[in-house]
Amino acid sequence: MTDAHADADFDPAPSVEAVSDLATRISENVERVIVGHHDAIEDIIVALFARGHLLLEDVPGVGKTMLARAIATSIEGSFERIQFTPDLLPSDVTGVNVFNQQTSEFEFREGPVFGNVVLGDEINRAPPKTQAALLEVMEELQVTVDGVTRRVPDPFTVIATQNDVEPDRTYDLPLAELDRFMKKIHLGYPNESEETELLGRVSGHHPIESLEPVASAGDVRDARERILDVTVSEPVRRYVSRLAADTRARADLGVSPRGSIALVRAAQARAALDARDYVVPDDVQREVRSVWVHRVRTTDERSGRDVVERALDTVPVE
């Protein structure tokens, strides 16, 4: 192959400006369906671009499923939904080998984890073994059934929801499993003007029915690759390390190294959303609450948020 042909076949990574534009297109498209949750939409885009997963803890009926569907549609990706129930089995999540009588062979039937955007609805309603089936796929990006390993689609992002209304009918996620979610956020109820706008939009056909893609799964893969090259200087890395150390000194369970890595990756994605190819402390500060609060545990009256806020107030920026 000649140099000319090699140049023609070379597909350069997108610029951070292109990544920022991609995020804006996705966000604006999702907001055609979802009213009043701009920050939550950006949180999901950050997690998607940073190869992370997101946990939504909220009351029923605030648009969690529509939000996940709108994200998947916007990137022309496949959307799968798993309704977690007490009788759900791990094979209902990952897939199962079924005997085909016509061919006298076993065939693998993919479970709902084989999607680009997977909604795990009310994950805390299922017993721990079934929860672990999804969380293992989140970590390994693959499913192993009867000794055969299959990769899930790329990109792959899980948006899991927790029911916090009926705690007596749920199974708490272990702290080690919570740690696998890059972010945890709340949607909350819309205000009066937002709910009025929402009712106007759904009084006829639901806008999700006419939503069109504004990007492709390939665009997301390219954005992910570009974000890996966003510079994280040593002073910023030290700042993250000192914040993490502060949470460990103040809490019974502070932020793990996995949490520090997740914060750096989220900050890289946030910088790219702002069309910068380097991380600044402000990126860390904008992302730290959604990335760290759910990882911190205390045995006194303080919350994880209290510990993280104290770290932000105490640890200086170099």
Automatic annotation (TrEMBL):
Pfam families: AAA_3 (PF07726), AAA_lid_2 (PF17863). Residues 245-309 form the ChlI/MoxR AAA lid domain. Coiled coil: none annotated. PANTHER family: METHANOL DEHYDROGENASE REGULATOR, MOXR FAMILY PROTEIN. SUPFAM superfamilies: P-loop containing nucleoside triphosphate hydrolases. Transmembrane segments: none annotated. It comes from Haloferax chudinovii. InterPro entries: ATPase_AAA-3, CbbQ/NirQ/NorQ/GpvN, ChlI/MoxR_AAA_lid, P-loop_NTPase. Residues 53-182 form the ATPase AAA-3 domain. This is AAA family ATPase. It comes from the Archaea. Signal peptide: none annotated.
